[in-house]
Each structure stands twice: as C-alpha cells, then as structure tokens.
Amino acid sequence: MTQPKTITVYCGSRPGKRKEYAQFAAEFGSRLGREGYAMLFGGGRLGLMGITADAALAAGATVTGIIPEVFVDKEQAHTGVSHLEVVKDMNVRKKKLIQLGDAYVILPGGFGTLEEFADTADWIHIYQQSNRPVIVANICGLYDPLKTLIRTYMEEGFMDRDEWSNLHFCTTSDQIFSILRESLTDGDVK
Q1: Using CA atoms, how far apart are residues 154 and 137, in angstroms rounded to an integer?
Q2: Residue in 57, 121, 122 with CA at minimum distance from that of residue 84
Q3: What pLDDT digit, counting tens, does each position of 111-122 carry?
Q4: Which value, to the nearest 10 degrees, does the dihedral of the CA atoms of residues 57, 63, 67, 73 take?
Q5: What is the Cα–Cα distance from 4 to 25, expressed in whole angstroms?
Q6: In what order do the strands lie in the sheet with 63-68?
Q7: Rounded to whole angstroms, how far apart are CA atoms 101 and 40?
Q8: What is the C-alpha to C-alpha distance for residues 32 and 26, in angstroms, rounded to an integer?
Q9: Lower CB count within 10 Å: N or C terminus of the chain?
Q10: pLDDT tens digits along 44-77
Q11: What digits encode the pLDDT tens for the residues 75-116?
C-alpha cells in the first residue's frame, strides 16, 4: 500500500473576520481527508489551523502537527491530531514542514503564514524542487497584493517567470485539488 501524499498547510491561528475564511478552511480540510491526502501543519488548535485540522481528521486524514515549545507552553497545541511533534523553535518547525511536504497550500493568515509561504517557495526554488506545487488559496482576494508583488518582481527582473511555474494562485478548492492531482503521482513527486 502506498503512503498518502502529504500536503503541508499553512494558515492563520486566528479565523479572520470573514466567515468565508473559516468555511474554506473546513471545506479544504474535509476534502483533504476524502481524497486520501495526509495533512501536515503547524500543530495549533486555534483559528484556521484548528478548523482545517479538525475537518481533515473528521474526514479520515492522518493529521500531523509540528509545534514549537513556546506554543505548547501557551496551551495552543492541538492534542487531538494523529501525531504531534514538539520542536525547539519556529526555525525547526518550518524546516520540517518544508522537508516533509509533497505539496504546500497557503490558506488565509497573517505574517507567520506569509513568512512560511516565502520561505517554502524560496527553499523549493533554491534546492531545485520546483516540481512541488506551492498553492496560494486566494480567498476573498486576500492575497491579491501578494500576487501583484510577485508579478512586479518578475516584471522588474528579480524573478524569472519560467523558474516559478510551480507557484499557483487559486480561488476554489476545485482548482487546488486539480493542481494536486496533476502534480502528485502514486510514486514520488513528479
């Protein structure tokens, strides 16, 4: 039996003001489970992190959280996940989330989510693993400014468009799962 592909999910530890963020997180998590993917995330129980993890668990997904000690001390760890790994700090967490993922989905969030997106996209680019998709769930246009910034980087010659073909902006879960199906095979990542 083949191991399910692991989708690293980055998202906020707050739910955000719009109900669409939480609705999308729940729908996305549930679909991860129904479609047979494993979920890897930052290990928190609050906000969109908790909503996505709970929905994935309810749909039968294996959900692994990697959480720094500081958030365990603040009682923010999601202790109901399939596996919870406590690590020393944010840097260790981030490295594991990148290395253990087959694909990456960025849901709505704040600075921490933005940092995880940038570090992941850059790490994959530097280590020439551009076959791993990095997918931004642009719900309610939250990431339109980021999309514009990236386009500006390309226009100004700081990024080569051809080298970033693994970077996707989506507005629906159908678009995200279509990319995941096209990018991930039963064997290794394409």
Answers
A1: 20
A2: 57
A3: 999 999 999 999
A4: 30
A5: 20
A6: 83-87, 63-68, 38-41, 6-10, 103-106, 134-137, 167-170
A7: 7
A8: 10
A9: N
A10: 999 999 999 999 999 999 999 999 999 988 889 9
A11: 899 999 999 999 999 999 999 999 999 999 999 999 999 999
92 by Cβ neighbours in 10 Å (0-12 / 13-18 / 19+) ranks as: middle
Task: Please identify which residue in the block is written with the tokens 């500006």.
Answer: 152
